[in-house]
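ARCHIVE CARD
Drawer: 12
Card no.: 0347
Subject: one protein chain, sequence and derived structure
Cross-reference: see card 0346
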Amino acid sequence: MAVTEQMNRAIEVCTRCADTCRDCARDSRDAGLDQIARMCLECANKCESTIQTMRSGSNADCAACADICGRCAQECDKSSESFCLKCAKVCRECALACLASASKATSTWTQEQQGASK
């Protein structure tokens, strides 16, 4: 599968999310918010692996990335720290971009399968 416009958008947003999550993890650790720091690192790592998968032309990881970004946003929303609120916002944007890419993949795959069965 070729990298689509939808995937390019998701790559862009995932890159921003990974960077923001790494910054939030560092700041959260410094502020003693260890659970948030762990969640942000997990999210950043998933975003980075999803970026690599998408660059190879697959968006198979997008749904899982959307899920973890959503969970990270919820965790960051528990804090009033500005770096956490920024992270939550970017994570929600990433979750939406990844969901859009994942749903596009599902509909494309379904159409390809229907065409192959004819």
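Annotation on reverse: The CA atoms of residues 1 and 80 lie 42 Å apart. The radius of gyration is 15 Å.
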